[in-house]
Amino acid sequence: MKNQELMDKINEQVTFEIASGYVYLGMAAWAADNDWDGFSHFMYKQWEEELEHANKMAKFLMDLGYPVTFGAIEAAPSEYKDVLDLAKTSLEHEQEVTQRINEIIDLARKYDDKRVEYFMQWYINEQVEEEDTFSTLIAKIERTNMNPAGLMILDGKLGRRED
Ligand code: FEO
Questions:
Q1: 97 lines ligand 1 (CB under 6 A)
Q2: In ligand 1, which atom is closest to the CA atom of 93?
């Protein structure tokens, strides 16, 4: 396969998407343990979303006849200082995902693989949303000045995330 390097990199990203979900699952557990039920629900939804990202990518590779493999996943962190730390860590994580998606597109261009380049557009748009989700969350948390009453209201709202 002349574009083996590209296909391998997408396969690596499949694992990274699942690993991302795993980080959010750990956050959901931390939040539940610290009685932030809304934050926990929000992060649990994020875990489900990451699995969708991974599945979509794996299916694309399978459709191309690439033998998808699932790599090792590191343990998810389980300690956070507070909900602001949770949100900031999430944004940093998403920035790394964006960087990886950009690298895949660069490689697709190197191999002039239009199928990959077109397919990955969805992830480019998705990453705009992902980064916005967490930068908005950070702004909302900061707006409370870490005031418990404000955080409780925010927690209630996050508990209503549907997708
Ligand atoms: Fe799949 Fe949150 O990037």
A1: yes
A2: 2
Angle between helices 37-63 and 83-110 (to 10 degrees): 10
With left for phi above 0 and alpha for psi between -120 and 50, is residue 99 left, alpha or beta? alpha
How far apart CA 88 and CA 93 sit, in angstroms, is 9
What separation in Å is there between the alpha carbon of 144 and the centre of ligand 1?
A: 26
Contacts of 43 (CB under 8 A, 6+ apart): 24, 25, 27, 28, 31, 86
pLDDT at 123 over 80: yes
What tens digit of pLDDT does each residue of 85-118 get?
Answer: 999 999 999 999 999 999 999 999 999 999 999 9
| Ligand 1 atom at shortest distance from the alpha carbon of 46 | 2
Beta carbon of 50 within 6 Å of any ligand 1 atom: yes
